[in-house]
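Section 5.1 Outputs to date
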Amino acid sequence: MRKFGEIVVDEGFATEEQINSALTYQKTSDILVGKILVDMRVLTHAQVERVSNFLKTPDCKGKRFGEAAVFLGACTEDDVARAIEVQRTSKGMLGDLLVALGYITERQRQDIVRIQMEEA
C-alpha cells in the first residue's frame, strides 16, 4: 500500500517539500484531546467548539478539556481515557497534519484515505 504522503504528491495535492515539512511537524507536535475525540468519532467539531467555549468561562476554571466534555455530557470518562491513551502514544496522522497546515483540504484527505483503502 502506498503511503499517505506518496498519494498526496502523486495526486498533485501537495509537494514533496510540504510533505517533508508536515512529517517534521508530526515528530514534534502533541495532538489535543478534542481532536482525538473527533477522530474517534466520539465528538463532532461543534461539540469540541462548545467545550472549548465552556473552558473559557469562570465556571470551568482549572478544568481540562476532557473533564469539561464529560461535565457537559458530550462524552464519557471512558471516551476521554481512550483519547488520552491515544494522545500519549501518537504524534498525529500525516493527513490530519497536512490539513492543519493548510497544505490539503479535508476533502482531499478523505479522497486519499479512500484511495489507500482501495489499494489495500
